[in-house]
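Quick one:
INPUT:
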């Protein structure tokens, strides 16, 4: 009769050197796994959309509204109008130098031909990736901070598309937000009126309340408040306002120039003068 061998096979015992080698291999494998996970996490973080600040969201919201309102008020629509967006921000010392490097460079990093004026306090140039003229102004500075104003201006001949304007302004906003997330912004659109009674049309379109009105021989300007905008500024008598409409008669052509600003109009009412600056 067959009787199986009850003796278990002898186990091969590893030497101390072999055990140390296996331990080292295990540690290296664990480190490799951790490194791969870390790289993947960093890549994922880079792919995640950056959370926009409230100042960035405000500008985008009001710019979309202004585009929609002006599209049927301006000859050629919003695409054929002149646009101006302004940012005001206070940052640490050296902020102007940092912004100059970021704003005056094209997609592939090529430097933009720029004009430096006012003893270095103003830098401007045509930046193709932003579709217009960019100006950077140093308003005030001390040893610790700098107050800056940034302008993006497009001409009516540029045929600016809605999505493009929103994206370009968002790109500039994201760079300014790195200096301070609490920047402020304003904007305006200019062109020639498409209809008569433009101000009345705007009032109905925006469900706005008139706050102030000015009129002389060549210009009508009216300031309003509407709940459709996020921007708001205090005005006289404890009231608030957030957009302004101006009509200006061009004596050379006989056309009526239209300017709409949020929260108010800054700069020229005249389209021809604004585009020649």
């Amino acid at each position: 009769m067959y009787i199986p061998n009850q003796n278990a096979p002898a186990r091969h015992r590893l030497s101390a050197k072999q055990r140390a080698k296996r331990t080292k291999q295990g540690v290296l494998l664990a480190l490799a796994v951790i490194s791969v996970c870390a790289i993947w996490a960093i890549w994922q973080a880079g792919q995640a959309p950056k959370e926009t600040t409230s100042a960035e969201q405000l500008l985008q919201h009001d710019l979309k509204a202004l585009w929609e309102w002006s599209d049927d008020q301006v000859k050629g629509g919003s695409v054929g109008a002149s646009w101006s967006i302004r940012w005001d921000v206070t940052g640490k010392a050296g902020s102007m130098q940092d912004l100059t490097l970021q704003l005056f460079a094209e997609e592939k990093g090529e430097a933009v031909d720029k004009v430096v004026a006012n003893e270095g306090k103003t830098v401007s140039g045509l930046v193709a990736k932003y579709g217009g003229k960019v100006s950077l102004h140093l308003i005030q500075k001390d040893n610790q901070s700098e107050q800056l104003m940034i302008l993006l201006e497009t001409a009516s001949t540029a045929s600016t598309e809605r999505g493009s304007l929103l994206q370009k302004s968002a790109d500039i906003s994201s760079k300014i937000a790195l200096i301070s997330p609490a920047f402020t912004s304003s904007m305006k659109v200019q062109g020639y009126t498409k209809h008569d009674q433009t101000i009345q049309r705007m009032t109905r379109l925006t469900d706005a309340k008139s706050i102030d009105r000015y009129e002389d021989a060549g210009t009508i300007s009216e300031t309003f408040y509407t709940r459709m905008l996020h921007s708001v500024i205090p005005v006289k008598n404890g009231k608030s306002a957030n957009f302004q409409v101006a009509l200006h008669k061009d004596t050379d052509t006989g056309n009526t120039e239209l300017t709409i600003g949020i929260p108010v109009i800054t700069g020229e009412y005249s389209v021809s003068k604004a585009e020649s600056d």
